[in-house]
From TrEMBL, chain A:
Keywords assigned: Cell membrane, Membrane, Transmembrane, Transmembrane helix, Transport
UniProt organism field: Actinoplanes couchii
Classification of source organism: Bacteria, Bacillati, Actinomycetota, Actinomycetes, Micromonosporales
Keyword Transmembrane appears in the UniProt entry: yes
Keyword set includes Lipid biosynthesis: no
Name of the protein described by the UniProt record: ABC transporter permease
Record PROSITE patterns: ABC_TM1
Annotated SUPFAM superfamilies: MetI-like (SSF161098)
UniProtKB/TrEMBL annotation, chain B:
Transmembrane segments: 9-30, 74-93, 105-123, 138-155, 184-205, 238-258
Pfam families: BPD_transp_1
Topology class, membrane: Multi-pass membrane protein
Residue span, ABC transmembrane type-1 domain: 70-259
UniProt GO molecular function: ATP binding
SUPFAM superfamilies (alphabetical): MetI-like
Record has ATP-binding as a keyword: yes
Organism field: Actinoplanes couchii
Keywords of the record: ATP-binding, Cell membrane, Membrane, Nucleotide-binding, Transmembrane, Transmembrane helix, Transport
Upper taxonomic lineage: Bacteria, Bacillati, Actinomycetota, Actinomycetes, Micromonosporales
Name of protein: Sugar ABC transporter ATP-binding protein
Domain of life: Bacteria
């Protein structure tokens, strides 16, 4: 029984050292790739944003110059405005539709399993094919959508992706159609966690369907709704591929969004420094919105 | 008809309408792929093709480099999925079953980057890839997709549900950590691995932006890039474009239908335990 404190500590130290080595050995294959391709680029971003690149691929420090240019850049403000426009409609619309579908599927109806499978199709289908199908469906002159609209009495149906006013609504509708199955699934999982007894108790108390939705379902779904909103917000602000293949930002700049502007500046005009400055804005936007949502959520749960 | 039955009927009507709205574009795509080019846009719309043109499905292989694109995509998807499963489950074991200082901070960094839009770091990433001389090689896409944080996250969620006592028993029996990972964890986590495999497979198959940035040579193109270039080049060949679209979607739909259960479970775990 002469084990000293120092000896125990040394032994514990050896275990920690052994575990650290082992732990890192397991992480390493993934961590190496993750660091090189994600962590380092995210870090470099905060350096590149303050530089200018010459044709030979060298960067020179220019301080805040990129950001001063950004403030005067009309295209940048258009892109920022369009991104907010997209998010402002896509978020509530997708929330409403996917929650509605989830409530519908949560009932004991025939064909529910089939519909759950079907609703997921758009989400797993490639964006290139989706964009092409919808561009053809929405084709102003001969497309089936406008034909149906004319049939039900709309004299001048919209020009959709060929019109500056209607291209963004078209993109919003198509992306809601595409995403709803995914968020519906998250809501369905959330609905499953609400105890049935709560509904039964409310029914015994004479609550109608609407009252039960407001007093039982919505509060029970709070964690899910919060998570879906955060996810949906980030995904809306980073909207990219659907715009690129459906409208390519057009007509004019009517659907130009931040991600695409980064792509244009960086890969079409090779202005890596300036593109990085725009990237920082996109990064900050997602970051700030997420933080705000977490703060609001914390206050509401108290 | 009693009052109580009315909401039920309304629900069925809603379900039917939603089902039609989701499926109609796909139905229209398949129908258009079986028409002649002039019949795709007619007024009124022909919802049923009376005289299917099966030739489109033969012509597409000669009119485009479909074989090359599909070959590249199959190769890439398989390799990326394999690597993602391997490195992801390996790292997840380190994160969930071995305690060492700094582990949780590191994991937070992984999760944090899931919220960072790819578009915001694609420029520095491209510069790095250029330095490694990976651009315009198939390896750029492998590097881009195989080390994602999502796989680590998903596998960690699953490993946490396996009791530590089981591992401790194996350790007392003298099994090494690697042995535990290979002989105990991997066999137990087959459902989670299946979920991750399906999600990675579909993501890689559908990825358009990665190949767009990195693959310049036509012989490296994936199906998405190839299909897009075909659309841009033959923008009036409506029927063939739809044929190509059907072929690009078909493998994913088949995979999804077979592995639907794992797919849905994967989405639910990554979604809700975050």
């Amino acid at each position: 029984m002469t084990t000293t404190v120092a000896e125990t500590r040394r032994r514990r130290g050896r275990v920690v050292a052994r575990n650290t080595a082992l732990g890192w050995a397991f992480l390493l294959p993934n961590f190496a790739g993750f660091t090189l391709l994600t962590l380092v680029p995210v870090g470099l971003l905060f350096y590149y944003a303050f530089t200018e690149w010459n044709v030979f691929g060298g960067a020179t420090w220019t301080g805040l110059e990129n950001f001063q240019q950004l403030v005067r850049d009309n295209s940048f403000w258009t892109a920022l405005g369009n991104t907010v426009y997209y998010a402002a409609f896509h978020i509530p619309l997708t929330l409403a539709v996917s929650l509605g579908l989830a409530l519908l599927l949560n009932r004991k109806l025939r064909g529910v399993a089939f519909f759950r499978t079907v609703a997921f199709f758009p989400y797993i289908t490639s964006i290139v094919a989706i964009a092409q199908i919808w561009n053809m469906l929405l084709s102003p002159g001969f497309g089936p959508v406008n034909e149906v609209l004319r049939f039900i009495g709309v004299a001048n149906p919209p020009g959709w992706t060929t019109s500056a006013d209607w291209s963004m609504p078209a993109v919003i509708v198509v992306s809601t159609w595409r995403d709803m199955g995914y968020y519906m699934l998250l809501f369905l999982a959330g609905l499953q966690t609400i105890p049935k007894q709560l509904h039964e108790a409310a029914m015994v108390d004479g609550a109608g369907a609407w009252d039960r939705f407001r007093a039982v379902t919505l509060p029970g779904l709070r964690p899910t709704t919060f998570f879906v909103t955060v996810l949906l917000t980030i995904n809306s602000f980073k909207v990219f591929d659907i715009i690129l293949v459906m409208t390519d930002g057009g007509p004019g700049q009517s659907t130009l969004v931040l991600s695409q502007y980064i792509f244009q500046k960086g890969f079409e005009e090779n202005q890596f420094g300036y593109a990085s400055a725009v990237s920082i804005v996109l990064f900050a936007l997602c970051f700030v919105v997420t933080i705000i949502q977490f703060m609001v959520n914390r206050r509401a749960t108290r | 008809m009693s009052i109580r039955r009315v909401p039920r009927i309304v629900a069925y009507v809603c379900l039917a309408v939603a089902g039609v709205l989701v499926l109609l574009p796909f139905y229209w795509m398949v129908m258009s792929s079986l028409k002649t080019n002039n019949d795709v846009f007619t007024i009124p719309v022909q919802w049923i093709t009376t005289d299917p043109v099966w030739n489109n499905y033969a012509d597409i292989w000669t009119e485009s480099d479909m074989t090359t694109w599909l070959g590249n995509t199959v190769f890439l998807s398989a390799l990326v999925t394999f690597l993602q499963l391997l490195t992801g489950s390996f790292a997840a074991y380190g994160f969930s079953k071995i305690t060492f200082p700094g582990r949780d901070v590191l994991f937070l960094a992984y999760i944090g980057t899931l919220a960072v839009p790819w578009a915001s770091y694609m420029v520095p990433q491209f510069v790095l890839m250029t330095k490694f001389e990976l651009t315009d090689t198939i390896w750029s896409i492998v590097a881009l997709q195989a080390f994602g944080a999502l796989g680590v996250f998903m596998m960690k969620q699953f490993y946490e549900s396996i009791p530590d006592e089981l591992l401790d028993a194996a350790r007392i029996d003298g099994m090494s950590e690697f042995g535990i990972y290979r002989r105990i964890m991997l066999p137990l986590s087959v459902p989670a691995l299946a979920s991750l495999a399906l999600i990675t497979l579909v993501n890689t198959w559908n990825d358009y932006l990665g190949p767009l940035l990195y693959l310049r040579s036509p012989d490296l193109w994936t199906i998405q890039l190839g299909l897009k270039s075909f659309i841009d080049q033959y923008n009036a060949e409506y029927a063939l474009i739809m044929t190509g679209s059907v072929l690009s979607i078909l493998p994913v739909v088949v995979i999804f239908l077979f592995g639907q259960r794992y797919f849905v479970e994967g989405v639910a775990t990554t979604g809700l335990k975050g």
